[in-house]
Amino acid sequence: MDLQERRQADARFSEYFHELIPEIQKEWPSIAKDQLVATLGSFDEVVRVITAQTMRTREVVQEQLLELTAVAEAQARHVGEQLEPLEDQLERLLDELDSALRHRLEEPVRKRPLLAIGIAAGIGLLMGLVLATGRRDS
């Protein structure tokens, strides 16, 4: 693996690190979650921690971690591909809703602008009071 490939692998590992922690612990149960978190997602540090506590070589651990990363990437891509049609459908529905409701909402506001301003101010005041009360209770 050349330097550029290595950097890309490190970046991909860091990107999926938190999702990989449970998988790493399944593969190497003797590694505590706190130890993994302490590495801050550094590929080299994770490899060092695992090799220090297991009898696996650095190369074997690196290869296994890269395989886990590839699986996580494939799962993320799959989820993204599944969400894309839903996002498109949602966008179309929002456009339809916008075109259907815009006229119904604009007309009363144009006929009675002061009433619309008063209602908006009242809603804003109520929301402010609710949010302020929530902060004081915390």
How is the secondary structure organized here?
Blueprint: H1 3-27, H2 33-38, H3 43-53, H4 58-111, H5 113-137
Helix pairs in contact: 1-4, 3-4, 4-5
Coiled coil: 76-103
Keywords: Coiled coil, Membrane, Transmembrane, Transmembrane helix
Transmembrane segments: 114-132
In a few lines, what is going on in this structure?
The protein is mainly α.
Q: Give the CA-CA distance, first to last residue.
A: 53 Å
Task: Bin the strand percentage.
Answer: under 5%
What number of structural domains do the residues give?
1
Over all CA atoms, what is the radius of gyration?
26 Å
| Helix content percent band | over 70%
- In the predicted model, the low-confidence regions spanning at least 5 consecutive residues are none
Total DSSP E strands: 0
Biggest sheet features: none
> What's the helix count?
5
Helix-and-strand structural type: mainly alpha
**What is the molecular shape?**
elongated
Mean pLDDT across the residues is: 86
The topology string of helices and strands comes to: HHHHH
Transmembrane segments: 114-132
Keywords: Coiled coil, Membrane, Transmembrane, Transmembrane helix
Coiled coil: 76-103
Give an overview in words.
By secondary structure, this protein is mainly alpha-helical. The chain contains five helices and no strands. The chain has one domain (3-137). Helix 1 (3-27) crosses helix 4, helix 3 (43-53) crosses helix 4 (58-111) and helix 4 runs antiparallel to helix 5 (113-137). The longest helix is centred in the middle third of the chain and has 54 residues, at 58-111. The protein is elongated, with a radius of gyration of 26 Å. The model has no long low-confidence stretch (mean pLDDT 86).
